[in-house]
Design brief:
It contains seven helices and no strands. It has helices at about 45-65, 70-95, 100-125, 130-150, 160-180, 195-225, 230-260. The termini are far apart. By secondary structure, it is mostly helical. The protein has one domain (about 40-130, about 140-260).
Length: about 260
């Protein structure tokens, strides 16, 4: 059984293959519970698309409003990040999906992204055009990886999954070590500073985040084929949101370093 590097998908039922996003009807409901014929209708690709579009639209709206808030926006980034982390942990460890929590998470993440984007323009001295480039880059990578998955150009095999999970874990461990080191050494290990090392590390993180979409798509595909209930679409939307947030931040950081070099 394959797993995924995205902890948001830890409760999704397994089943199915790759590159289909079929609307198959399985014998099991959401989170591995048997479902009778009279229970909630099964998950479909339309559910996934609709819920994902809803969460992304909300994040874009709150992000834009926060960014336009001016200097107040930067101050909202840290509180929003903390609230978003708490909400994500509740969603991940809660056994029953809650649309309200996913919607709240999306709104808060929008505030965080809007605040951090404004902070980059104010503190790092980048132009607003870089923000738009980061948004366009994120959308482009997402679309490209969806095409890659749908065409089966790269198959999500157990070996591929293990490699990607290891790479993602390695990236986060290095980020943590760099953060701790920054308390004692200016710039830490240099992974988040300009120069070849910082740019190289950002490129690696962008690559890992991009390929993580393949695991996310595969998890959603297996949930559909496994017969998960329709409300699980909110859980899938939440999982995709976490990967999108990571990818956007990495692209924004890379563009900032390239502009300042």
């Amino acid at each position: 059984m394959r797993t995924t590097s995205n902890p948001a998908f830890k409760h999704l039922p397994a089943g199915g293959g790759y590159a289909n996003f079929d609307t198959g009807r399985g014998a099991f409901g959401g989170f591995g519970q048997t479902r009778s014929a009279a229970s909630t209708r099964p998950l479909t690709i339309d559910d996934v698309v609709t819920k994902t579009a809803t969460t992304l639209s909300l994040a874009v709206l709150t992000g834009a409003l926060t960014y336009l808030g001016g200097s107040l926006a930067a101050g909202l980034a840290l509180p929003a990040a903390i609230v978003g982390l708490v909400l994500s942990l509740v969603i991940i460890f809660r056994k029953k999906v809650s649309p309200a929590l996913v919607i709240a998470y999306s709104a808060v993440e929008g505030v965080f992204l809007g605040g951090i984007s404004y902070a980059f323009t104010a503190m790092a001295g980048i132009s607003s055009g870089v923000i738009m480039q980061a948004i366009a880059g994120t959308i482009g990578v997402f679309a490209a990886m969806l095409v890659v998955y749908k065409t089966g150009a790269i198959r999500v095999t157990p070996k591929f999954t293990k490699w990607l999970i290891g790479a993602a874990a390695g990236c986060f461990v290095l980020m943590l070590v760099n953060l701790i080191a920054s308390f004692f050494i200016s710039g830490g290990l240099g992974l988040r500073e300009g120069g070849a090392l910082g740019i190289g590390f950002s490129l690696i993180c962008i690559g890992v985040a991009a390929f993580s979409f393949l695991l996310d798509f595969d998890a959603a595909d297996r949930a559909i084929k496994g017969g998960a209930e329709a409300r699980v679409a909110w859980y899938i939307a939440f999982g995709l949101m976490t990967t999108l947030v990571w990818l956007y931040l990495e692209i924004l950081r890379l563009l900032t370093m390239l502009q300042n070099d």
